[in-house]
Amino acid sequence: MAKVKKDTADFSEEIKIKVLLWSYRHCCLCGKQCGTKIEVHHIVPKSKGGTGDPDNAIPLCFDCHAEVAAYQCEHPTGTKFSKKELKARREQIYEEHTRHLVPPLDYKITQQLPFGNKKRIFPDVGLTVVNLSDYLKARVFFRLNVILNNGKSEVIEDDYYNGTKPWHMNPRLIASGHFDIPQWARQRGERLEIRTLCTISDIHEREHELLPVGWVYMWDKNKWYFEP
Questions:
Q1: What pLDDT is recorded for position 117?
Q2: Domain 103-227 carries which CATH code?
């Protein structure tokens, strides 16, 4: 018997569970708590090439689902929900119901070694991360971009610093790592900045992207100062 090929435009059970957890079973348009009276809607319909990825999913109550699906572009009345607006409204609901799962982090670029008063010798540079929560755990991704004042920039190649591999941050964990500044950026006296993008994946695997911040190197002191 031939196998029936699964429609890749369908949402898997795993994806449905994720988006229902992220929304806490609230409608992502009206904000109502729905219980079992909720459906996972395709933002781009399957008939128009919509996929079964989480980015194409939005949990909706029966009424809102019917309203979004019933709009007729051929005979428009009122203003339809655009794909951009649906995703923005969805993210508002997701954020409201998952932000309490994000542990407070303290992280910094530093020349200080983890223990004692010794410092790293440039171009060896450290990143120290502290999970300040007593009970929240998360996976944390860092993407470090090295920038000179001449405009040249480059992401650190190591997987732990280019956003590929996570740091597993359990409650109250202090973690420290290090990397080398690329050869082209070791120009003494030039303004050297490491711009850091931190993304936190909570226990339900929703990602929370923090605003990027930077650290600038002081060549004469072998130290970094914070650049917001």
A1: 85
A2: 2.60.40
